[in-house]
Amino acid sequence: MKKYSIVVAGGGSTFTPGIALMLLEEQDRFPIRKIKFYDNDGKRQETIAKACEIYIKENAPEIEFSYTTDPEEAFTDVDFCMAHIRVGKYAMREKDEKIPLKYGVVGQETCGPGGIAYGMRSIGGIIELIDYMEKYSPNAWMLNYSNPAAIVAEATRRLRPDSKILNICDMPVDLEEKMADMVGLKSRKQLDTQYYGLNHFGWWHKIYDNEGNDLMPIIRKKMAENGFAGAISQTDQHVENSWMDTFAKAKDVYALDPETIPNTYLKYYLFPDYVVEHANPEHTRANEVMEHREKHIFEVCNNIIEAGTAKGSPFEPDAHATYIVDLACAIAKNTKEKMLLIVPNEGTIENFDRTAMVEVPCIVGSNGYERIVQGAIPQFQKGLMEQQVSVEKLTVAAWIEGSYQKLWQAITLSKTVPSARVAKLILDDLIEANKEYWPELK
Ligand code: NAD
Ligand code: G6P
Ligand code: MN
Question: Where is the active site (predicted)?
Fold first, then answer.
């Protein structure tokens, strides 16, 4: 069986150890000969990489492992680049969340002005990775889950339309696990679903089991009672209280359109007042992540390095990340698996902009993806999506053209922002905070 060479871009990410260990676990279906980590922060990456190196030596010595900040070394001889970079790291996520909150506006990693700010930082970073990959391994595929995926995907559509990059998100994976649990099935793989939307902005409109039985009636009932709260995901990754609140709030989001099952992220657009009232402008999700996930991962890595062994360490494969191997296998082995990808619409949603980057089910194989037609969508969803896709397109246009005007329009158009005046106040603060990362705006 062919063995693959992988570069993980964003080697210093808090998700890297979980993904690396998951890759080792999945070798039966996705055999690996080489794993490389690449990051532009050598020091951050080193801690994660040294610990993973010890683990890999002890558990899969046949896999060649290395880490580097040199693009040529990282991207030469690779089949896949798994990209999860965070340009500006948590320090900038914290600003993305806190600046809008100062003006009473939702402060969120990927939604509203915070997501726009993050997008303006990510575009350059992702384009750089694509260019390295194409220079040193022209046949490789990039599997990208760096955020904000909607804006990143629109940027790659405009700037690198022919590149082999697939953008994917794990939120629907987690929610499908929860829906499987609601109907007494073991795994999301036992569901057959239809979904349409933008990334972090979509709805399920058909859910069957593998025998073709309609599961919507049971799921609707459960959503009306509890939202996603109480439903168990086999791949539990979102366990903290702030996430529990999001799963419970999905009950109210669902109530707006009981015909469909919403993505949890819609709460930021449909209940921004609630979100702001329940936020602490001094302590946001970025602080939680730094105090919990980041601290924990780096502590575990440092302990492994000090002990010189990973035996007995709480290092665990990230079960939730197997969707990335599903995607890699689909390409490597032409499995034709159905999965949600963020792709150009091209008529998949009949009554929606053909050039929009939409999240829809696709059949994935070695020649890429084929979209599954979703037909015409209802007025409510269409209206929301038209507004949001314009935010995303204007953000990318602002980045490409260096346009202050377009970025002001993008922020003004976000459903989370009450007026052009507030949009301008937020924008001016964001420009100041992002000097190091954004192109100059005129
Ligand atoms: P993190 O800050 O821990 O790690 C990101 C790493 O990227 C850092 O080590 C940083 O130095 C590196 N980096 C930043 N800019 C870079 C560049 N230009 N080139 C190379 N490396 C660069 O972040 P995290 O919380 O572990 O998240 C990583 C990414 O994964 C984020 O974009 C996050 O939003 C995304 N994510 C996406 C999904 C999804 O469903 N799509 C799920 C989880 C996380
Ligand atoms: C979900 C989303 C990701 C996002 C993550 C944030 O998994 O799909 O796109 O990055 O949540 O989680 P965090 O724990 O960092 O707040
Ligand atoms: Mn996501």
Answer: 170 (proton donor), 265 (proton acceptor)
